[in-house]
Amino acid sequence: QVLPKRCARPAIRFGPISILLHSATPPLWLQPVQQCGSMDSLLSGSLAGIVADVATHPLGTVKTRLQVQGASASSLTRYGGVAQGLTRILTKEGVGALYKGVGVVVATAAPAQGLFFLGNDTAREALRPHLPAAAASFAAGCVAQLCGSLCWVPMDTVKERLQVEGQLKRGSKAELGGSWNAVRTILRREGLRGFYPAYWVHQATWAPFNGLFFAIYEACKDAGVHGLGSGVVAGVAAGFLTNPMDLVKTRLQVARTDPSTFAYAGAFDCVGQILRREGPRAFLDGAI
To answer: Which has the least CB within 10 A, 24, 32, 214, 229?
Structure first.
């Protein structure tokens, strides 16, 4: 994960913030996918990804903190919502805190978005003669996610670990510094595996999100809803439906920032602890 974390990426997902993030760029991104060749998709997807990710990064930071804050009342600062989160981060940490991790986002946006659109183009062209339009769009979105995740999983891990450091109360934070220092530190201490925690949870979040987004987007166009309206409907619906899994993914990806706060043995243990300690509604944190 606020737009979204992959046809619309970073990831708060529902309500006014979600509408802004999910709908700001996807219709523009889809136009080159449908009208241009693979190289054009690579270039346009890369540029759109960088612009969208940088523009929505502050909201992505708030969304990430909202999703993890229920893990501990004693070691994590809590926010009453997006507005309070933005205000408190600005007043206590400064504007720079809202852009923690933006360096690694910019560095990976071009190759990740390029792989995403290349995968979507290839799969769409291969499947359309054999499947209904909605089914072909869903499958193409899933393939696109699998291609882009080669870059997105490491990017998400570094970005989200940096985003929550300022939320950890004194005595429990592990300072990684900026994006490049974070990459070096994780590689040195944890190896390559440190960049891929919750890999399959990531796939279980974003493959359905992208599949749902493209399928709903196409259905909206067939129903006569075009442009921004299609993006709004598709982004909000896909984001809301996948937010519970996105929340689990986010907590697992930031766990090494403070293992005592995020003491999860895996995805199922994380789900169980959230249900027991916070209740089912916690899975909508960051979504509404």
So the answer is: 229
